[in-house]
Write a structure and sequence with these properties.
Blueprint (H helix, E strand, L loop, with lengths): L2 H14 L5 E5 L21 E6 L3 E7 L2 E2 L3 E10 L4 E2 L4 E8 L2 E7 L7 E7 L5 E2 L1 E6 L4 E5 L3 E4 L2 H14 L5 E2 L2 H5 L4 E4 L1 E4 L3 E10 L4 E5 L4 E4 L10 E2 L4 E6 L8 H25 L7 H22 L2 E2 L2 E5 L4 E6 L6 E2 L4 E6 L3 E9 L9 E7 L6 E3 L6 E5 L9 E9 L9 E8 L4 E6 L4 E3 L2 E9 L2 E12 L3 E6 L6 E5 L1 H10 L11
Parallel strand pairs: 1-8, 4-13
Antiparallel strand pairs: 2-3, 3-5, 5-6, 5-9, 7-8, 7-11, 10-13, 11-12, 14-36, 15-38, 16-33, 17-27, 17-32, 18-26, 19-21, 19-25, 20-24, 21-23, 22-23, 24-26, 27-31, 28-29, 28-32, 30-31, 33-37, 34-35, 35-36, 36-37
Length: 514
Amino acid sequence: MNKLLSITISFSLLLLLSGCGHSVKEEEGHDHAHEAEEHAGHSHVGGLPYAVYTDNFELFADISPLIVGDSAIILAHITRLDGFRPVQNGVVVLSGAYGSNRFSVVVNGPEEVGIYRLKMPVFEAKTVDLTIQFKDSASMAEFKLPSIPVFADHHDAHEALESADEAVPLGAITFTKEQSWQIDFATSKVVTGVVGQVVRASAKVLSAQNDESVVVAKTSGVVHFGQGIKPTGSAVKQSEALVSVSGSGMSENNLSVKYSEVKANYDQARQEYERHKKLVADKLVSQEQFSASEARYLIAKSQYDNLENGFSTGKQSVSSPRGGFIGQWFVSEGDFVEAGSPIVKIVGNRELVLEAQVPVRYYSVLPAVNGVNVRTLSDSKVYSMEELGGKFISYGHSLRPGEQLIPVTFTILNNGMFVSGSIVDAYLKMAGSEKNLSIPSTALLEEMGTYHVFVQVTPEKFIKREVTIGESDGVQTVITSGLKPEERVVSKGAIFVKLAQSSGKLDAHSGHVH
């Protein structure tokens, strides 16, 4: 049974069994028991913070102390990791058990965008394991929280909260979920993997040979553009007429005269072929005579079809053989061309060649090339070879005269961000053998030659930490010191966390509702 089906069944059972044990259903998603504590607009109960991640969601649960005989409040902040945006709607079910006392809480919608207020009963002074399930029209998620302590009285709860506060590193920066939801923000896990040597080089984007077509004149004559020339770079459709070639008014190579001659030859050859085809069966003509007439007919037909296709009022129309863009014109209005002369180059701009120029000192490592990341100079975004459907082709084994650079060639599919002839940054990746820690390159902030990241303590608290970096492929950067596996760092929006640290005026509860 797959996970999605399992969660669906769990939701159904929880809703059906809400009458078993203890159950609370909060139709509007609001609890007014703590209205006296609500202020400043920030969703926060001053409790214990818990973070749980699935492949697609983040849960940040702010849980007020669980004290026997009281009810507790959980503020569940649910974020979609794709874009790090809050969920807009959906049902949340909280379930747990104190021994034989099972309970479930159903909330049909968020109190605020992304934030669900859950009120739960507290029965026994022990720990309780909680599960929070989320479901909307398109997705589901299940979050299993670690064992939550239950306190006998307010004194024990107060001491636990003080201990939790003391565990937060000194100087931790508060950056609330509401603040992070309003900017381009994300956190990423420190990952362990094999990262080989990276060589950074400039690369030129070229059209692939099989993605270009040169259209030639099928007959001799004078070039006419008719509706006007399409500028270089203009889009064209397959079979779209581009120019015409006319021999009218010329004493030699007159297209109308040539067309009449070819048509007459074709008609004569066709009649002879059809006559011999009937006679050869009765052996009134020899097989040799029939074969000769068939050959004359096929040649004449080929010449006729070549002129007939696009011939009109003494002109031969030249059309694009494919959809694409005008790459280069080889003629101008009024030029005389011979049959076979190039007219225009059509480029598909779909498949591109990436030719990186690598200093010769890296020649010995080029056999280990296994990928490339590409950074466009226009928007500085980095694309991986996998995103571009790319493939390594080859590298040069000799130098061009007067150069100390070796070409390394890849093919990529154009995602609309690359222009043939442009220059990009290429990060050539080599196969490696040693495991390293790495983080997204966007997480790094440089100050006076040193690098820092913001490490997540909770989804609303971060500490600044200096790190030492190693190789970078433009997407991921190796960290040689300063981080541990499985820690999370701010990978987008780090500059805003830095500004929050620098202001010194930021209210730790700004934007929150207590």
